[in-house]
Design brief:
alpha+beta; five-stranded antiparallel sheet; 21 strands
Length: 382
């Protein structure tokens, strides 16, 4: 069935235009009477904007509209000052003429070609005079130099995705589109691949639209979050603020938690503990063996899951818990018949705590109340 699509606009401002980078999206894509995507948002034109929601909510449909794989009619798409679609002006750029890189769940490599020749294929899409990322740079960035002579069948799932990302980078894209790139991998391969994603984001600074239904990936990678449900926008904003909102479903799963953005103060090598300063004070967490050494002054993001935060009305003494943070209760909501979710403000940093309903009543928790949030050092995720 041909989709009935109308009114799509994606517009990051051109660098140097004097206007803050922005990504404006207005999309309406209908498939019969069963599903209609109706989105009108403005997203940052830098960093990682994650599109999050359950299966079938419209995440991939939105990405395909940006990529030109689904054509809104009428529609308008402008990326970094370049018009990719404007029906009123009779402009349409097919996908192969759009300066973007796309990575799907499956790497979709050419099985009969070596890794080197797969990368060469991506590079040929871009005239030499307009290339901003060299093939050597993409290979080094993804750590695949030792794989160049292999064929895709000889690669692990994580290696295949690293090659797919390198091939996308070889096109010198103005925008990277990621459609659940880790969904087909097991937990070990995901853990292997995530640091490479972080390196791409950190070193190349190419804006990325990242589709996922994994809250772990959102917490690890995203700067901005767009939440979809049944083809509609539920919420959007900075990822830290949205993850701590009790009115959103993403705060109610087992993986619910909050993000702390801070600066490394020091690494205690005797105990392998990282001390991080943030708006509400400082926290200590275990520095995982084998992970990159954090340097003083380095900005880091820590994740604190709601299930790992307990509350007390007085600061505990003689306790094994390393992190005891003064905070105030901002809101509470029932989380099933036996549990209560508590939203906290720790000196401007949002936190979530999941406690039993019995504990919430015993402490008489209420908005505005001063409490102490207790977080075990081994529970903070770096």
């Amino acid at each position: 069935m041909t989709p009935d699509c109308s009114g799509t606009a994606i517009t990051p401002d051109a660098p140097g235009s004097g206007v803050p980078d922005a990504l404006q999206a207005r999309a309406r894509v209908g498939y019969g009477t069963a599903f209609t995507l109706d989105v009108d948002v403005q997203l940052p034109g830098r960093g990682v904007s994650a599109v999050f929601g359950p299966s079938g909510c419209g995440k991939t449909t939105l990405l395909r509209a940006v990529a030109g794989l689904t054509r809104p009619a009428p529609g308008r798409i402008v990326v970094a000052g370049e018009v990719w679609q404007d029906d009123a002006a009779g402009i349409w750029r097919p996908t192969h003429q759009r300066p973007l890189g796309v990575v799907f769940q499956e790497a979709s490599l050419f099985e009969h070609l070596t890794v080197q020749r797969n990368l060469d294929f991506g590079m040929r899409r871009v005239p030499a005079a307009t290339r901003q990322i060299s093939l050597a740079q993409a290979v080094e960035l993804l750590g695949i130099g030792h794989l160049l002579d292999r064929r895709p069948a000889q690669l692990s799932g994580g290696e295949r995705q690293r090659v797919a990302i390198a091939r996308a980078l070889a096109t010198s894209p103005r925008l990277l589109l990621m459609d659940e790139p880790l969904a087909a991998l097991d937990a070990a391969r995901k853990a292997e691949l995530l640091p490479w994603f972080e390196r791409v984001v950190r070193e190349l600074r190419i804006p990325m639209l990242y589709v996922t239904h994994s809250l772990d990936e959102v917490a690890r990678l995203a700067d901005h979050l767009l939440v979809l449900d049944a083809g509609r926008v539920v919420a959007q904003g900075p990822v830290g603020a949205l993850m701590a909102r009790l009115d959103l479903a993403l705060a109610h799963g087992d993986a619910a938690g909050a993000l702390i953005d801070g600066v490394v103060e020091r690494l205690d090598t005797d105990y392998q503990l990282l001390q991080v300063r943030f708006a509400g004070g400082s926290v200590q967490c275990v520095h995982a063996p084998g992970s990159a050494v954090r340097q003083p002054g380095e900005r880091v993001r820590l994740r604190v899951q709601a299930r790992d935060v307990s509350l007390t009305l007085r600061a505990a003494q003689d306790t094994s818990i390393l992190n005891v943070l003064p905070a105030s209760v901002t809101s509470l909501v029932a989380d099933g018949p036996a549990q209560t979710l508590v939203a906290l403000d720790a000196g401007g940093a949002p936190l979530l705590a999941r406690v039993t309903r019995k504990s919430a009543e015993a402490l008489a928790l209420a908005p505005g109340q001063t409490v102490f949030a207790q977080i075990k050092g081994v529970a903070v995720l770096d």
